[in-house]
Amino acid sequence: MSNPWEEISLDDYEKHMSLDSVRQLQAMNSIMQEQFNTYPAETAMILGIAGGNGLEHVSPEKFRKVYGVDINADYLRAVSERYTELSGVLECLHIDLVNEAEKLPQAQLLIANLLIEYIGYGAFQKAVLQTAPEYVSCVIQINVDDKQWVSESPYLHAFDRLDEVHHQMEEKALTAAMDEIGYSLILQRSEPLPNGKSLVRLDFKRNEVKQCLNQTNYT
Asked: In the sheet where 109-113 sits, what is the strand order?
């Protein structure tokens, strides 16, 4: 059976995320501007790039390579068409992170926003170890209602199958999972959303000694 994200149209996704009652697209755009500019990195990878929201903040003068990864090939085609000014810098990769993490190239900065919810902590650990970044910047959604975690909107039914792959996120659990593979928390910030939910940004830096010791456990 296909992954639910392969069946959700980009138009439905972006219209839902940008509603005034949701405003996650707008919040994520602002966060991504900070993510791209906070750390000294020349290469970056975005897991779950969707339609490329935030890519306008990529400076070709800073980044020599930015990888955009998604399971939905239509999303990747849209990204390539939208951001032609990043030609030579942006490379889109069609990868199923749960089953094909070994295909990921390495990058100095790894960005994973509203992505870990759909692959789980274990798959994310494998993706991080394969990518071997110095910095990891994540955004997770904290819900007031664990059963109604998709916001009400006219596009709600486009997301009906996401229950099949969704995992509830917790800051402490993600921090513990990252510590297991040698990454220490260096930033935690919360941004409230209009519907009572919040986006929590968690950034990590690689602990060289511990990361090397744990590498063999995930290969």
From this structure: 90-94, 65-70, 43-47, 109-113, 135-142, 198-206, 183-192
